């Protein structure tokens, strides 16, 4: 055995083994420390990665929610645009409907006008009881058609917002007296009392609309009252005025009181009264719309079997009006009166000429300004009164005839302007001209009364 072999086989000295053990232990500790460090590093990297993944996930969700909200906002914008477009389309359609009804009313009311005038002339020619009865039935039918057309036009205008009130100071005593004079014959025909209690109060309102409101209220009160009477009372309450229309009629059940201002409500049908049966159920609907346009408050109180009270609350006026409301007197004879009629509708002109001739008037009829001018050249005398249609052919206006005669002849002759157009603008234009306005269909009794008043 060589010396090298002996050296390789011999165990290391004891000190060397201990040193190696210490080194191994130290290396193990270092290794453990390194492993722990690596594990901690891995844990930290794993947490950061998890946070990173979480952040990415949250960002995706936020982006998704943002996209959903953005899409919803765009959808809402489109919906709003669609709603606005629909609203504008509806308003345009409403205005078109109003213009159509206003235009159609002239054509619809013209034949009614001619029919009523012809019927009045026929009644004068056929005085028998049976003929008078039939004429009365036809007259009531024509009146119902006329009322329906006028009311539908009014509702259309109010709903479309084309009615613009012109408030001014109004003496209620004059207005109430006018209403009383108009409805007293109807009340007396049913043996009802029509009583007014009106202080000298001035209010701020549109006189045309307020008169229509009171006419509808009093008309309803008389129509639905069988016994007793109707009261129109005016009282001042501080800076406001209260108008009550009270009747002793059948009353309105509580269950129906919320319906009375709706279209076509006519109350209980358990009646044989012809006037009640002919009611359209639109009067109070018009009242509500007109009061809303004026800013006046309408309230209703009613008890079945005792009657109904409808109250209008409106502001008092600050200044007194210059002139009272004029009331036409009872008609007198028209014998010998020269009447100039300018009417482009042949049937209406013929019926009006026949009616005036039956009243012993001397009538000249022309279709337009050219006809009047030609009559002047052939020696036409100055008429005592003129009845002129507002709408003539080719878009011309009847007031042009008035202006022409005043300018060329110096004739300041009383004028009645007839029209089937119920617009406020035409009414004010006629009033500014100093003429009287009569809406078609013309009521013969109203026309005769007005002619007598103007000729007097």
TrEMBL record:
EC number annotated for this UniProt entry: 2.7.13.3
Q: Does the keyword NAD apply?
A: no
Q: Which intervals hold domain Response regulatory? A: 338-455
Q: Which residues carry this modification: 4-aspartylphosphate?
A: 389
Instruction: Write out the GO MF terms.
Output: kinase activity
Catalytic activity line of the entry: ATP + protein L-histidine = ADP + protein N-phospho-L-histidine
Give the coiled coil ranges. 66-96
Q: Which residues form the Histidine kinase domain?
A: 103-318
Q: What class of enzyme is it?
A: transferase
InterPro entries linked to this entry: CheY-like_superfamily (IPR011006), HATPase_C_sf (IPR036890), HATPase_dom (IPR003594), His_kinase_dom (IPR005467), HisK_dim/P_dom (IPR003661), HisK_dim/P_sf (IPR036097), Sig_transdc_His_kin-like_C (IPR004358), Sig_transdc_resp-reg_receiver (IPR001789)
Q: Which SUPFAM superfamilies match?
A: ATPase domain of HSP90 chaperone/DNA topoisomerase II/histidine kinase, CheY-like, Homodimeric domain of signal transducing histidine kinase
Listed A to Z, the keywords are:
Coiled coil, Kinase, Phosphoprotein, Transferase
The identity of this protein, by name, is: histidine kinase
- The record lists the organism as Methylobacterium thuringiense
According to the entry, what is the taxonomic lineage of the organism?
A: Bacteria, Pseudomonadati, Pseudomonadota, Alphaproteobacteria, Hyphomicrobiales
């Amino acid at each position: 055995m060589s010396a090298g072999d002996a050296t390789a086989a011999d165990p290391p000295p004891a000190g060397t083994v201990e040193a190696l053990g210490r080194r191994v232990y130290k290396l193990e500790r270092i290794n453990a420390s390194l492993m722990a460090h690596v594990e901690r590093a891995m844990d930290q990297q794993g947490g950061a990665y998890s946070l990173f993944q979480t952040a990415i996930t949250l960002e995706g969700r936020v982006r998704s929610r943002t996209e959903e909200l953005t899409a919803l906002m765009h959808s809402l914008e489109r919906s709003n645009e669609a709603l606005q477009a629909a609203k504008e389309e509806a308003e345009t359609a409403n205005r078109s409907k109003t213009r159509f009804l206003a235009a159609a009313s002239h054509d619809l009311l013209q034949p009614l006008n001619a029919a009523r005038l012809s019927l009045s002339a026929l009644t004068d020619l056929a005085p028998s009881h049976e003929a008078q009865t039939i004429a009365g039935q036809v007259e009531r039918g024509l009146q119902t058609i006329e009322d329906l057309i006028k009311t539908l036009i009014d509702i259309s205008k109010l709903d479309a917002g084309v009615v613009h009130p012109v408030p001014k100071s109004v003496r209620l005593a004059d207005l109430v007296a006018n209403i009383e004079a108009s409805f007293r014959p109807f009340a007396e025909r049913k043996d009802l009392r029509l009583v007014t209690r009106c202080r000298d109060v001035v209010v701020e309102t549109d006189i045309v609309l307020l008169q229509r409101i009171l006419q509808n209220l009093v008309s309803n009160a008389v129509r639905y009252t069988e016994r007793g009477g109707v009261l129109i009372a005016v009282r001042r309450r501080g800076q406001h005025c209260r108008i009550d229309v009270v009747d002793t009629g059948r009353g309105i059940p509580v269950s129906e009181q919320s319906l009375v201002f709706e279209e076509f409500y006519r109350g209980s049908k358990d009646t044989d009264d012809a006037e009640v049966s002919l009611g359209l159920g639109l009067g109070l609907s018009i009242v509500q719309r007109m009061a809303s346009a004026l800013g006046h408050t309408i309230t209703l109180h009613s008890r079945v079997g005792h009657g109904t009270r409808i109250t209008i609350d409106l502001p008092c006026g600050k200044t007194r009006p210059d002139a009272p409301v004029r009331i036409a007197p009872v008609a007198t004879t028209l014998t010998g009166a020269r009447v100039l009629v300018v009417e482009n509708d042949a049937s209406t002109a013929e019926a009006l000429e026949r009616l005036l001739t039956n009243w012993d008037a001397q009538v000249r009829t022309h279709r337009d300004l050219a006809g009047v001018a030609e009559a002047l050249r052939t020696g036409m005398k100055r008429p005592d009164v003129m009845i002129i249609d507002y709408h003539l052919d080719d878009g011309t206006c009847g007031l042009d005839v008035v202006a022409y005669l005043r300018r060329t002849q110096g004739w300041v002759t009383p004028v009645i302007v007839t029209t089937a157009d119920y617009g406020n603008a035409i009414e004010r234009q006629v009033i500014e001209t100093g003429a009287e306005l009569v809406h078609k269909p013309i009521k013969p009794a109203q026309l005769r009364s007005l002619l007598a008043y103007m000729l007097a």
